[in-house]
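Example record

The entry below shows one chain as it appears in the dataset: sequence first, then structure tokens.
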Amino acid sequence: MCMNILVVVDMQNDFVDGALGTKEAVEIVPKVAEKIRLFMDGTNSRVLYTRDTHEENYLDTQEGRHLPVRHCIRGTQGWEICPEIELLRKEQPIDKPTFGSPVLGQLLKAQDEDLKKQGKEGITSVTLVGLCTDICVISNALLVKAFLPETPVIVDASCCAGVTVESHQNALQAMNMCQIQIIGQ
């Protein structure tokens, strides 16, 4: 048995149409929802979610000093996963206070090892979609590649949006150079 994983990165209100939202982010929501449905219909697949999570002291953190826009503060509407995606969610999101989530990497590595101990193939691919391509998607794609170096890591560009169109494209190029497969362009 093999396992295909979809990681839905930070599809939260503040990144879609809130404090840091963009029209490109709004446009990918139906595409991300469809991607989730396709994975949910597949056998031996799992959909995981990350959630950017900051506390009230966000502006006093290093990130807050570099990006002084309050966003994804725990418990606020902006922190919540956008409604269209939330309706599909079956697993508890992985809250992450930084761009990349070591918890995600550890969880995937443990699941891969567990499947192999059972005599199964393990995780055969990890696909990432979500926001923002140039910050959290790239951070988590590289992190997954570090935890599972022999597992194909895929980013569906049609289901991602960046801070700007240019930075989105730059991130896709950088990930491609790091042997992350880019699809959906």
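Notes for this example: The longest strand covers residues 122-131. The CA atoms of residues 57 and 64 lie 9 Å apart.
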